[in-house]
Amino acid sequence: MGNWWITASSDGTARLWESATGKAVGEPLRHNGGVSNAAFSPDGRWVVTASWDSTAQVWAATCKPVGEALRHDGAVNSAAFSPDGKWVVTASADHTARVWETTTGKLVGEPLQHRSYVWRAAFSPDGKWVVTASADGTARVWEVKLAKR
User: Fold this and answer.
1) Does 122 map to a domain?
2) Nearest Cα to 123, choosing from 105, 108, 106, 104?
3) CATH number of the domain where residue 121 is located
4) 1-29: per-residue pLDDT in tens?
5) Is residue 23, in this structure, part of any structural domain at all?
6) Cβ 130 vs Cβ 123: under 8 Å
7) Closest of 105, 96, 107 to residue 142, by C-alpha
8) Helix (H, G, I), strand (E, B) or coil at 85
9) Is 95 among the domain residues?
């Protein structure tokens, strides 16, 4: 973000890169399966990765994990931060999207259920809604009630 950019790879890693030099920053962010998605938080303080190993993980800019792994029962296809960076939404092959606290990895509320794989999930600009897109042929908008807003 700004001075850095991030890549995700099927080799099970995501990497941070310095924009000016193109050199890798820190150690790779490692999973036990391919990394399908990686994204910065809005303030650039955190990175989230989504993996085929059924987890997503929030990382500090120091390339160290933050909180618990965000666990699903199937591959995690995407992960995205809320506009304020306090929450992460994940989309999974287990037919759910889930909302998590960024710093602890604790699940917030019930899973957002579809009839097939959930490919993508994202927060609305005001952080009050999550939109999901599924292989069941639907996109849905969910109201999310998040504590400590």
Assistant:
1) yes
2) 108
3) 2.130.10.10
4) 468 999 999 999 999 999 999 999 999 99
5) no
6) yes
7) 96
8) coil
9) yes
pLDDT in tens, 59-94: 998 899 999 999 999 999 999 999 999 999 999 999
Per-residue pLDDT, 26: 92
Task: Say if residue 87 is exposed, middle or buried (CB neighbours under 10 Å; 0-12, 13-18, 19+).
Answer: buried
Q: What is the phi-psi region of residue 93: left when phi exceeds 0, alpha when psi lies from -120 to 50, beta otherwise?
A: alpha
Write the DSSP symbol of residue 52: T
Six-digit token pair at 109?
């509320």
Domain with 74 in it: 31-143
Q: Is residue 51 classed as helix, strand or coil in its secondary structure?
A: strand
Q: How many domains does the chain have?
A: 1
Q: Is residue 134 part of a domain?
A: yes
What single-letter amino acid sits at 85? Answer: G
Report how far residue 113's alpha carbon sits from residue 56's, in angstroms, rounded to the nearest whole number.
18
Side chain identity at 132, as an amino acid letter? T
Residues 6+ apart with CB under 8 A from 110: none
What's the length of the chain? 149
